[in-house]
Design brief:
By secondary structure, the chain is mainly α. It is 81% helix and 0% strand. Helix 1 (6-39) runs antiparallel to helix 2 and helix 1 (6-39) runs antiparallel to helix 3 (59-70). The longest helix is centred in the first third of the chain and has 34 residues, at 6-39. The model has no long low-confidence stretch (mean pLDDT 76).
Length: 73
């Protein structure tokens, strides 16, 4: 990550903004999944939903990193 790759950042920015919206949705799903897990701890599918929501919340960083790695300086 020591390289300067502004072109990859600029190309990935619109996709990262879409991913940011998905991460906000993931935060809401994670919150609801956590509440459901606290109410009914025997429901193991709620834990899976919470894990998927955590992946959605880290999606913008993964997208920007992937785009900047694809563009050579």
């Amino acid at each position: 990550m020591g390289d300067c790759r502004p072109l990859g950042f600029l190309l990935g920015l619109p996709f990262a903004l879409v991913a940011l919206v998905l991460s906000l949705l993931g935060a809401i799903v994670w919150l609801l999944g956590s509440l459901l897990t606290c109410v009914c701890p025997c429901c193991c599918c709620c834990a899976g939903v919470a894990n998927v929501a955590m992946e959605l919340m880290t999606l913008p960083l993964k997208i920007i990193t992937w785009f900047t790695d694809q563009i050579p300086c």
